[in-house]
Design brief:
With 186 residues, the protein is an alpha+beta fold. Helix content is 38%, strand content 25%. The structure holds methionine sulfoxide (SME).
Length: 186
């Protein structure tokens, strides 16, 4: 089935993000972060090996990130079901189950098929607060080819926790998960 919103736009969009903060992310910290994501790619491939149950793999994916990435309080998936996002495997506090397309950070990222980085969720119009202690967020769409499968969502209690390095690393990880589901990486 072809979705009218299934147009891939791979570039990260930093919502309301000052340029100065972008530059600050390109220091030694960014290098350490790149190394961490490279290690996560290796660990994810190992977790996925010989297992093709998508829900099980998505559950292990969210656990891997939740326990490996510093300073995150929620990691999980929302899957696209008939034009709304429905909660999938996650780690963190219980969350809202259904998000309409175009609503909240997840719904906007899904509708626009773009990664969205929100340095301060309290400044994002229509942000849906599942865990009141969350202050920043990143949402990464996941595709099966050109078709939108859903989004990966990460929250942090720190303001400005996520940057372009996270966007790049998380996009690589969800691409591996989606491709594994299709058996494209064999
Ligand atoms: N904050 C998200 C809702 C999902 S929770 O963060 C887990 C949003 O605005 O879409």
């Amino acid at each position: 089935m072809t979705s009218p919103i299934a147009k891939r736009k791979p570039k990260a969009k930093a919502a309301a993000r000052p340029k100065a903060k972008r530059k600050a992310a390109a220091g030694p910290k960014a290098t350490a972060k790149t190394g961490l994501y490279a290690e996560l790619v290796t660990q994810l491939r190992s977790l996925l090996k010989d297992e093709y149950d998508f829900i099980a793999n998505a559950a292990n994916f969210s656990s891997l990130l939740y326990h490996s990435l510093p300073d995150v309080n929620w990691v999980g998936f929302y899957f696209l079901h008939e034009q709304e996002l429905v909660l999938g495997p996650f780690q963190g506090k219980p969350a809202c189950v259904r998000i309409p397309l175009g609503k909240g950070v997840c719904g906007v990222a899904a509708a626009q098929c773009e990664t969205i980085i929100v340095p301060n969720v309290h400044e994002f119009p229509g942000h849906i607060a599942c865990d009141p202690s969350s202050n920043s967020e990143i949402v990464v769409p996941m595709f099966d080819g050109e078709r939108l499968l859903g989004v990966l969502d990460l929250d942090s209690t720190s303001t400005g926790r996520f940057d372009d390095q996270d966007a790049e690393g998380l996009n690589e990880l969800v691409t591996i998960l989606a491709a594994h589901e299709e058996g494209l990486d064999d």
